[in-house]
Amino acid sequence: MPVTVLQNKKRFAMARYITTTLPYVNADPHIGHAIELLYADVLARAARGAGEDVFFNTGSDEHGQKIFQAAEKAGQDVQTYVDHYAARFDKLKEALNLSYDNFIRTTDTRHVAAAQEMWRRCAHALYKKSYTGFYCVGCEAYKTEKEIENGECPLHPGTKLEKITEENYFFKFSAYQDRLRAYLRAPHTVIPRARRNEALAFIERGLEDFSVSRERARVSWGIPVPGDESQVMYVWFDALTNYLSTLGWPHEEGAFQKFWVEGETLQLAGKDQVRFQSLMWQAMLMAADIKNTDRVFYHGFITSGGQKMSKSFGNVISPYDLVGKYGTEAARYILLRHVHPTEDTDITEERMDEWYTANLVNGLGNLVARVMTLAAAHLSEPDFSPLAKAVSAPIRAHLDNFLFNQALDYVWEAIRACDELITHEEPFKKIKTQPQAARETIREAVRRLGDIARDLVPFMPATAEKITAAVRKNEKPENLFPRLG
Q: What is the CATH code of the structural domain delimited by 15-299?
C-alpha cells in the first residue's frame, strides 16, 4: 500500500539532506549497493530540479574485524586494502552517472575526529563491563540468544559464531526506550510502515544495552576510544557518525546547521538495517543532544536465483558488468523501474535482456526516432519551448512515496500514448492530403516527447538531455539504445 505523503511539512524543505548507508569495503560493489545509490540520486536530482538546495552523501565503511581479516587473507596492508575497495565504490559515480556531493571515508582524518567527539558527547550514556557473548564477524556484532538459529547467525549461515569474553564499553540503550518509542510513533519517521512496526517491536521486546567498543588486543583496526588506549570503537558506532562528519560536524555552523539542523534529513538503507539506523543511531543522537533523522527509507533486496545477493553465495551481479552490457542509462532504467522499492526482487540476465529490448530499444528509442524523423521532414522550424526544470506533479507524488518503479510506469504510459497517437492519426500518410492536420499531430507528438524528457531527468538524465536536444534542434538523434549483439 502506498505511503501517505508528508502532511505537516512542505513537499520539499528549503534544504534537503539525503544519504545512503556506507557500504562495507571488503569486496567489489554489486547491484544491491547500486540500487540504494540510484534511489538517492533520483531524489536528489528531483529536489534540485524543484529549486532545492541538496546535499547528497555516500561513502565507505572501512574499519572492523571483518575488513582486517579480509586484508590479512589477501596478504595486503589493511590501509592499502581499503583504499582499493573505496576507489571501486567511488568509481560508481561515473559508471552510474551519480550526482553525490561528498564521498566520506571512515578512515578520513575529519571523520575520525568526529567519531571521537560523538563518543565524548555520549560518554554519560556509556559504562564499562566484562562481557561474554557469541560474536558474528559478518555482522560485526554480538548476537543475543533470540538472534541465533541453530548455533549460527541467520544473516551469515555457515559461519561459526565466536564465543568471546572481553571488557567493553556499553551504551545505555535501555535508557532511551521511551524516547525512541515516541520518535518512531511520529508519522513518517520510518518508511515503509512494516519497517516502522519492526522497529517498534524491537522496543516492545525490551532493548538491551549494546557494546560500543572492542579490545584493541583483539581488534586493532578501528578508531581509538578517547582516554582509553586499550579499546577501539565498535565499527557501527564509528560508521554511523559519517552522517554528521560529512557535513563538517562537530563544527556546528555551515553545512551541518543548514542541512541537518534546519533542513529535512533523509537516510536510505536496506531492510536489514532497521535496528542500526532507526534505533541505535537515533539513540546515539539523543544521547549527544543532536536532532534525530527526519525519515529513514528502507528498500528491499535484489536477489538472484532466489537468494540474497552475496559474495559468499557466488550470485553477485556487478553494476560495472551491467553498464558494460547495456550502458549507463539502460542500467539505471533496469534497476529503477524493475526493482520493487520495498520488496525483494529476483533478477536474471534473461529478464534484463527482455526489459532492455522491449522498453528501451522498441519502446522509448523507437518512439523518439519515429517522431523526430517526422518532425525533421515536415516541421519547418523547431517546435520547442524551454522545459520546466521540475518534474510533473504525478512524478513528484510517486517520489514523495518512494515509488520509483511506479514513477517510471507513468513515463512509459506516456510513451505508449504518444506512440498510439502516431499510429492512430497516421500523419505520415495524411501529410499529402491533410498537411495542416498532419503537422499538428506531429507538433503534439514533439510536445509530448518534451514532457517525457522532463520527467526522465531524475531517472535517465543523459537520455533526457539527448531527447531535449533533438527537440530543440528539430532533428532525429543518433540511435538511443542499440540492439543487443
A: 3.40.50.620
Cα 449 from Cα 387, distance rounded (Å): 11
* 308 in active site: yes
Counting other chains too, the contacts that 145-151 makes at CB distance below 8 Å and 24 or more residues apart are 146/205
> Which band of pLDDT confidence, cut at 50, 70 and 90, is reported for residue 304?
confident
User: Residue 33 catalytic?
Assistant: yes
Q: Is 30 a catalytic residue?
A: yes
**Segment 384-441, tens digit of pLDDT:** 666 667 999 999 999 999 999 999 999 999 999 999 999 999 999 999 999 999 999 9
Alpha carbons within 13 A on the beta-carbon side of 444? 16
Q: Which of 296, 291, 396 is nearest to 10 (CA)?
A: 396
Running DSSP on this structure, what letter comes out for residue 271?
A: G
**Which of the following is catalytic: 30, 111, 143, 398?**
30
Q: What is the pTM of this model?
A: 0.92
Active-site annotation holds for 311: yes
Residue 418 annotated to the active site: no
**Active site residue: 271, 308, 338, 378, which one?**
308
In CATH, the architecture of 348-473 is Orthogonal Bundle (1.10)
Q: 194 exposed, middle or buried (CB, 10 Å; 0-12, 13-18, 19+)?
A: middle
> Which residue of the set 66, 139, 398, 418 is catalytic?
139
Instruction: Give CA–CA dist 405/416, Å, rounded.
Output: 16
Q: Is 156 a catalytic residue?
A: yes
Region of 75 on the Ramachandran plot (φ > 0 left; ψ -120 to 50 alpha; else beta): left
The residue extents of the domains of the chain are 15-299, 348-473
CB atoms within 10 A of CB 384: 16
The pLDDT value recorded for residue 163 is 82
For the question of residue 139 being annotated catalytic, the response is yes
Residue pair 21/36 in contact by the 8 Å Cβ criterion: yes
